[in-house]
Write a structure and sequence with these properties.
The structure is a single chain. With about 210 residues, the chain is mainly α. It has 10 helices and no strands. It has helices at about 1-10, 15-25, 35-45, 55-80, 85-90, 95-105, 110-115, 120-130, 135-165, 165-205. Helix 3 crosses helix 9, helix 4 packs across helix 8 (about 120-130) and helix 6 packs across helix 7 (about 110-115). The termini are far apart.
């Protein structure tokens, strides 16, 4: 991933094509982080090549969407035979796929919608499971298209505006840290005062009564 990001940064003018190609490879279960690609694209759009914002968003959306098709058709065409491939059997957990298929049967479209927000290999499992379960391709296209657009738009927008306003965010964070420190000091003083008052009260109660 470090090499890919460095390469994209050095060829910023063609970043959208590189990002699209990288995401297509992710559909083949190559370990390329979809989230990192989206965030990096948004940072580029906000800071380096704002004129290519639309191209960068289109590249991550279409790259993610089309790579899902690749994953779906791998699962649909080869099915259980995939686990005869040593590399594939090591990178994809069959038990996890079986669990995801159960979620499809129980929750349907919501499995894709919410599952798309979960990183670390869950997404590819979603698409493989859809293919293995012979989900109708038209239904998959519609469901995954909506889920992909929602998740990509949310992450890209957050990263984009976060990058544009990073100075304000840092300033806000410093202010918040000062507030936390002040609250901590006040709480500490209050705790010391309470314990001291409680100790004096205990000592007073333990004193013998005057005759």
């Amino acid at each position: 991933m470090d090499f890919v990001i460095q390469f994209i940064f050095e060829h910023a003018s063609s970043a959208h094509w590189i990002i699209f190609s990288s995401l297509m490879l992710a559909g083949l279960n190559v370990p390329i982080s979809e989230d990192l690609m989206i965030i990096f694209s948004a940072v580029l759009a906000a800071t380096v090549i704002p004129e290519n914002t639309f191209k960068l968003f289109a590249s991550v959306f279409l790259g993610c969407y089309f790579s899902d098709w690749v994953c779906y058709w791998i699962g649909r065409k080869w099915g259980p035979k995939l686990w005869n491939i040593r590399w594939f059997s090591k990178t994809v957990d069959l038990k996890k796929l079986t669990q995801i298929q159960g979620y499809y049967e129980k929750y349907g479209f919501r499995t894709l919608l919410f599952g798309r927000f979960i990183p670390f290999g869950v997404r590819n499992g979603l698409f493989l499971a859809a293919g293995l379960g012979k989900m109708h391709f038209g239904k998959f296209l519609l469901s995954d298209g909506i889920a992909c657009f929602c998740s990509n738009t949310a992450l890209f927008t957050l990263a984009y505006y976060g990058s544009r306003n990073y100075e304000a965010l840092i300033h806000s964070l410093k202010t918040f840290n000062l507030f936390l420190f002040g609250a901590f000091v006040v709480s500490l003083i209050g705790l010391i005062w309470y314990k001291k008052k409680k100790k004096l009260k205990t000592q007073k109660e333990q004193q013998p009564p005057e005759l």
